[in-house]
Amino acid sequence: FGEVQYFFQLKLNGREETVALISVYTAPDPLLLEESSGTLMVCRYLGDAALKIIFARKIASCIAMVP
Asked: Cα–Cα distance between 10 and 29 in angstroms, integer?
């Protein structure tokens, strides 16, 4: 999971690509996931310590991460 900071376009190998800078969350807490029968995914926000650039087309869905 990741929070999109912003989108931008780059020219890669002669093609214009839309990418996103995201801040990555940790993997879900395995104990809480198991205890909730797979219904509760608790992740930790890592902020600027975990920035990553991904292709925008790789974003599969939009979810809410409630604090």
From this structure: 35
Maximum Cα–Cα distance across the chain? 49
Residue matched to tokens 């801040």:
23
Measured between alpha carbons, how far is 33 from 20 in angstroms, rounded to an integer? 28
Tens digit of pLDDT for each residue in 7-50? Answer: 999 999 999 999 999 999 999 999 999 999 999 999 999 999 99
Long-range contacts of 38-41, Cβ-Cβ distance < 8 Å, separation of 24 or more:
none
Classify the phi-psi angles of 13: left when phi > 0, otherwise alpha if psi is within -120 to 50, otherwise beta: left
CA 41/CA 55 separation, integer angstroms: 24
